[in-house]
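Milestone 3.1: sequence recovery, worked example.
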């Protein structure tokens, strides 16, 4: 029976498996692969303690893949990618792409030895293309992929069908034009989520729990979507916004409180008269789950 492979953050108990994976993949080739010498010398547990972002592809039997990633000045970088289970490497690359995208990063890069044509072909199938070549004792190719822009924006007429599929709403009203208070999470051209704000005459607005497509849940994107709707509420004279606490949203209670959404019984409430409220980029300063 083949056990399911899931990608998750590195845990201390993964250290022996990850050390074996790294030794099998890079032992004897430390100078050819970026980061390999450091990883083999320090070991995965010490790498994690020094702040490295390590993701593991794991099963009930242990770790079957690992990758490290970071970002600098808007560019994501990953290395140490290796796996012992077919498909686990691709899962790790896609997980890094999601984490980078959630952090607002548009470009993701990795480096491979020039002589490894099979790796160049592998990454080409994943959407990565050569952007530079370095010489020296171990010549390398730098590969890059431009990630689709992940953003929260106002609903458009062309979003109607996707909104209907996500929410169960009749798409016809959306086909007629922009509906005030509706926002979508857009992954490039794909609509991956939706949320709507309902205003009231007493100045108390209600935000629906965001709808998200499979693959976008569990990434903390709900908070980003809620923050985007605040600007609309403020410019339309609302005094507060409430959002029902669902099981999914409860996992981000601390993040909501950091953004001054305070829980009152079964709802989060954001006071728009708060002196610290500003109409700003909803992504600025927002730590999204999976982004680091």
């Amino acid at each position: 029976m083949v056990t399911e492979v899931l990608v998750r953050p590195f845990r201390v108990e993964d250290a022996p498996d990850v050390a074996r994976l790294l030794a099998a993949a890079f032992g004897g080739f430390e100078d050819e692969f970026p980061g390999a010498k450091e990883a083999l010398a320090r070991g995965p547990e010490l790498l994690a303690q020094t702040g490295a972002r390590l993701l593991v592809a794991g099963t009930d039997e242990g770790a079957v893949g690992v990758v490290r990633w970071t970002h600098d000045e808007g560019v994501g970088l990953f290395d140490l990618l290796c796996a012992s289970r077919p498909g686990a490497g691709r899962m790790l690359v896609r997980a890094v792409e999601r984490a980078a995208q959630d952090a607002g990063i548009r470009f993701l890069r990795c480096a491979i030895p020039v002589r490894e044509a099979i790796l160049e072909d592998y990454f080409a199938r994943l959407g990565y293309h050569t952007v530079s070549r370095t010489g020296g004792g171990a010549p390398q190719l730098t590969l890059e992929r431009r990630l689709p822009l992940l953003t929260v924006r106002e609903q458009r007429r062309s979003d109607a069908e996707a909104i209907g599929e996500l929410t169960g709403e009749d798409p016809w009203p959306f086909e007629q034009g922009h509906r005030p208070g509706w926002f979508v999470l857009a992954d490039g051209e794909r609509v991956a989520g939706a949320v709507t704000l309902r205003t009231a005459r007493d100045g108390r607005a209600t935000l629906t729990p965001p709808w998200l497509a499979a693959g976008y849940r569990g990434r903390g994107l709900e908070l980003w979507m809620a923050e985007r709707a605040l600007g609309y509420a403020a410019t339309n004279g609302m005094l507060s916004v409430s959002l029902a606490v669902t099981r999914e949203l409860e996992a981000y209670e601390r993040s909501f409180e950091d953004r001054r959404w305070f829980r009152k019984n079964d709802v989060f409430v954001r006071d728009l008269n708060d002196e610290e409220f500003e109409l700003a980029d909803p992504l600025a300063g927002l730590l999204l789950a999976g982004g680091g």
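Residues 278-292 have pLDDT under 50 and may be disordered. The two ends are 33 Å apart (CA to CA).
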